[in-house]
Amino acid sequence: MTDVSPARPGGAMVEFDGVGLRYGPDAEVLSDISFNLQPGSFYFLTGASGAGKTSLLKMLYLAQRPSRGIVRLFGEDLVAMPRHRLPGFRRRIGVVFQDFRLIPHLSARDNIALPLRIAGVSEEDLSGPVGEMLSWIGLGDRADARPATLSGGEQQRVAIARAVIARPQLLVADEPTGNVDPEMAMRLLGLFEALNRLGTTVVVATHDIHLISRIENAQMMRLEKGRLSDPTGALRYPPANRA
Amino acid sequence: MIIPRVPVQHRRLLPDRRLSGPTPWVIAILMMLTLLAAAAGVGLARSANAIGAAIAGRVTVQIVTANPVTRAEQAAALRRAAAAQPFVLSARSVEPEELQATLGQWFGAAEGDDPVLKSLPLPALVDIDFVGEDRTGPMRQLEALVAREAPGARIIPHAEWLGPVARLIRSLAWIAGGMVVLMTLASAAVVIMTARAALATHFPTIEMLHMIGATDRQITRLFQRRIAIDTAYGIALGTVVAAAILLLIGLQWSGVTAGLAATASLGPAGWALLLALPLLAIALAALTARQTLLAALKKIL
């Protein structure tokens, strides 16, 4: 049984304070990462390849615990959280992977329905939302197609639909436009923006700096060699506020 | 529950490739060997017990007095005296014709017409069965009786010469039992390897399921069900083959009515054990798979 507490009213959805991450005995891939993400905001995470974007996102979507520092998600300390409580938090996060990670032997419909089935939603209750989602991403007529028969852009849309079908509070996307043409990239970004307007906090990792100007009021975090470099100065904890 | 209930839609998370891998076939072979070893073990154990019970309270008194008339008189007197004792269940003189017939099998002579066999000075034998299985007290009383009625006669407890055979049969039964245990362990090892291989094969699916909030219990039930069904197929197949072999042996065995072989049978408890073994094996496979999967999933965040 998982137990998830609601986010603190008025508090940050995500808080990183002095976070470091290392894999094994190697040097840290992320160092002294501190920032707050506010509910309902849209963030871009940029940086060159190897800067640590994916590692940072892994901690955001609870695939990795930090080596040091504090990570709070929905008001809960995730560093010390027992493992059995993590699934409940993961159900509040939608993840779009760069390589889609669709389950190959399931149809587009079944891939999209997966989070609802895992959450215990009945077949009767999920058929409506899944159908709507398929129409929304323009794949209503390809619902029974397997991922291998879909184009890269179609697979990406299925992956996005799967990430948002359960109406997550936080959507994390790792290079979601990396495998699609510019036109499709803009369409996908439009989907994220629409979700954001519905109240979902969106974090998009990309190395395409031109995308950022397309979203109004989006904020940016930049990673350089494992350290956060914030050009706007708006995202990091002001030093005076640190514990 | 041996085979967990998983919603139909969830079952599709694992591609349906039942019986395509080696697991059901390996389990079938192991199950067949386990059942045959168990049947052998039960049969041998029952045989050893039957022999032990039969020989525990039986002795043969061998009278070797040179004069055949005196020998026959001593044998008759001893039989009568023994039969009258409260510690004796039965006393029976072994007729000379019976002895000659037994020896005739070794001499190759039929109907006791061999002159050499007829000329042999055979001892007079009296078979005595004691009341109960305690030999110590009755043996002392019998020794006194024999000393009085047939001085010089030898008392041969059957346990002395058939005991090693019974012990050998009992040892073979234990070896068969050990083989059952070893093959059960081997079956469990096959299930563990199958579970680990399934996890490795489907790791991307498992990772994805974790990322969208699936619990270890949900994932484990999915794999546990598949492994339990696969092993159940193997166990059923192995059981059918073993049953066919046992029935065939049983038919041939039914013609054996004499000697040690006639004492070997499975009995109701043995059959019940053999019927329970496949069910226990399915339960063991499901439990082993569950523990292996849970232990492996705990290593993933």
Question: How is this structure best summarized?
Answer:
Chain A is α/β, with parallel strands linked by helices and 243 residues long. Chain A has helices at 53-60, 86-90, 108-118, 123-136, 152-164, 182-197, and strands spanning 14-21, 30-37, 42-47, 68-73, 76-77, 93-96, 170-174, 201-205, 219-224, 227-229.
Describe this protein with a few key phrases.
heterodimer, A: 243 residues, alpha/beta, six-stranded mixed β-sheet, four-stranded antiparallel β-sheet, 6 helices, 10 strands, 22% strand, disordered N terminus, B: 301 residues, alpha+beta, 4 strands
Average pLDDT, all residues of chain A: 84
What fraction strand of chain B? Answer: 5-15%
Model regions low in confidence, pLDDT < 50 over at least 5 residues of chain A: 1-9, 236-243
Q: What is the number of E strands of chain A? A: 10
Kindly state the mean pLDDT of chain B as a whole number?
83
The number of strands of chain B is 4
Structural class of the secondary elements of chain B? alpha+beta
Walk me through this protein's architecture.
The complex is a heterodimer of chains A (243) and B (301). Chain A is α/β, with parallel strands linked by helices. Helix content of chain A is 28%, strand content 22%. In chain A, the strands form two sheets. Chain A has a six-stranded mixed beta sheet with strand order 6-7-8-3-9-10, with helices on both faces. A four-stranded antiparallel beta sheet of chain A has the order 2-1-4-5, covered by helices on one side. In chain A, helix 3 packs across helix 4 (123-136) and helix 3 packs parallel to helix 5 (152-164). The model of chain A is unreliable at 1-9 and 236-243 (pLDDT under 50). Chain B is an alpha+beta fold and 301 residues long. Chain B is built from ten helices and four strands; from the N terminus they run H-H-E-H-E-H-H-E-H-E-H-H-H-H. Chain B has a four-stranded antiparallel beta sheet. The two termini of chain B are 27 Å apart. At the A-B interface, helix 2 and helix 3 of A face helix 8 of B.
